[in-house]
Give the backbone structure.
Amino acid sequence: MPRVAASQPMRLSHAWFDTMYVVNARSFSQPGGLGRYTREIGKRLATANTKFIAPARPECGSLGGLLWEQFALPRHVGPHDVLWSPANLGPIRVRNQVVTIHDMAVFDHPEWFSQGVRRGVGALLPRLVRSVRYVITVSGFSKERLLAHFDIDPEQVVVVYPGVGRLVGADCAEDGTIATDDATASNGAHSRVPYAIAYGPRDPRKNLRTLIDAWSYVGQEVPDLELTVVGQPSSRTFARNTLANGAPGIRWAGYLQDSELADLYSGASLFVYPSLYEGFGLPPLEAMLYGVPSVVSDIPVLREVYGESVRYVDPYDPVDVARGIIETVRCSSARDQLVKTFAATVRKYSWDRAGEAVCGILDRVDTSTR
């Protein structure tokens, strides 16, 4: 388990002098949003009375990691310790626990998940939310969905928005400021042609199929605009023998390290996020830090997070997705209007504030009872 350095650790206090704050670090080394969330909050919890516990093998990600979490992790939690599980699940035996549940996609859209995931989460999560002291979630939308599925006290569910920070890359300032138009333009050398970015990970909710369909319309109107897809598409996204990989104007970048992704953002003209379901939806916020406008799905959670700082489209309609992309790329006044809102939107989401809020919730746990 790597040591976690914290530049501004939060002060954790408790009535019990021997209380430790234990972080379930199973997702610490995981790429993507869950890993980033765990690491960023973890940095802000790292004090003398905090310990991070992770499996000996980082590859313990599915069944092995789940078994470790349920049976091995509780042995590291003392009778008056408080456990924070940041990645949707935690050991049901530990009552002095706070768990972060990012979304309810498994319950709202079980068709997107394997039978094993549906059964495992379906069996564990209802018992977990009834046993832990508090549930943290990342948006008002996710809290609403939690309460729709589980009969628990609304006061037990606390919304703590995640933060955002610039990725580590050659073109990134360390102060977290938003790139200016000049800075963004100067990085255009990353590509010979203007390009948009989209995510295509192994997750049907990212709606890559609709975006591919939309791109045929985009190509007719803006033929010099290329689409760069980050991540590997799911086998369930495209049928066997599909021609998607050969679609004109689309480049498949695969998985990128943060430094590579930072450089990609720096030269982009647009970020496209036609997701069907999110608990929060962080990537358009990262794009804003690089001065990149976003076209996103018109779904409730993205309205909650982004307000008027993005262009909304119907994620089920490829023509509307294409129209949003074309109009945002072509209309400089529309782009400028979006960019003017970025600073105010980004200021709403701070990892320091999120870490402080998580600390406060951990401190609420009464460790005198088990």
Remarks:
- The longest helix spans residues 115-131.
- The radius of gyration is 21 Å.
